[in-house]
Specification:
Low-confidence stretches of chain A: none
Oligomer: homodimer
Structural class of chain A: mainly alpha
Largest interface: A-B, 46 and 46 residues
Radius of gyration of chain A: 19 Å
């Protein structure tokens, strides 16, 4: 009895879960590195060290795999953000902007742009984007201690997240870190002022 | 003598110029509608009503055509922005955001995302993006009457343009106009305050 398992879930289910997770992580890194055109179930299965049959068992279509992947990593990211220690507003602005400059944003961007041209992706990605966007907005409101019952506060937070998305885009082709850090310092102050009024 | 021409440029040069312009405009609308994968010189030539040979005479490679197209439309846009009548800062914020929500932004976005995966495009698009970005920044500083010698002003304008870019991205899959207009009203106020300090 060397293996301890959840009595409701045998080692087989645990393995299946681990395989699924490996596939999702490989799918995001593949999308970020190679774009939609270079991302197929076969390429991801190989990257994850999983057989193509096993990959197709978990995700019957390419669209299933890549929308699930972006959703999975967005959830991980939301969870990480929610469990950050309480911090100042300028620090929160910096943490929110960080969400949009890593491999997840690159992967999501490739998925959005592909979805704008491919009808079979469009509805799913639109729905996913709306859901992830609402969740990120809720987290931002909490972390910034923003009172949305006051006029303009909701739009202040929305514009901040739009700015974070634009900073992510500016980081796509070149390392924009130095410029971004200066913008984030100034906008940390601006958001602090705007929310105090 | 029914045709009046610039003495330095005969009717042949004028026709060549008009053909070039038709190709550039067709290239931008093709990139915006069909993405990089669906955009070839042949498809654009057909859309422009120009022979493939003539198209290749003007633009030997696909990369030549599409980078020239995005640059051409960006220049037209900068010119239009520069010749706007003087307006208030909140109106200027709205006009700047409008730059990022039309077909040019969609075309540029497809080109950026393709460039992030394709080495033969990457350097050219990076250089183009830097040039267009600097020009847009200069125009924004002028229109907003922003004094960049004061600390934080440069970053305030940069962050505003990042926000505009993020708002363009939010408009990619769905019509985000109603939400965007509310964000723009509020951020018009916030930028006005920030530049007054």
């Amino acid at each position: 009895m060397g293996v301890v398992t959840d009595p409701a879930r045998g080692p087989k289910q645990d393995r299946s879960r681990a395989t699924r997770q490996r596939l999702l992580e490989a799918a995001v890194s593949c999308l970020a590195d190679r774009g939609w055109a270079g991302s197929t179930v076969a390429v991801v299965a190989e990257r994850a060290g999983v057989s193509r049959g096993a990959a197709q068992h978990h995700f019957p279509t390419r669209e299933d795999l890549f929308t699930a992947a972006v959703e999975y990593v967005a959830e991980e990211r939301s969870h990480a953000l929610r469990t950050l220690p309480v911090r100042t507003r300028p620090e929160t602005v910096a943490a929110l902007v960080d969400l949009y400059t890593g491999p997840l944003f690159r992967a999501a961007l490739h998925l959005w742009v592909a979805a704008s041209d491919e009808p079979q992706l469009r509805d799913r990605v639109t729905e996913l984007e709306a859901r992830v966007g609402r969740e990120t907005h809720r987290i931002a409101v909490d972390l910034l201690a923003a009172d949305e019952s006051r006029p303009g506060v909701r739009e202040t937070v929305q514009g901040l997240l739009d700015m974070a998305r634009g900073l992510g885009l500016a980081n796509l082709l070149t390392d924009d870190t130095a410029r971004r850090e200066r913008v984030v310092v100034e906008w940390g102050r601006i958001v602090e002022e705007a929310l105090k009024r």
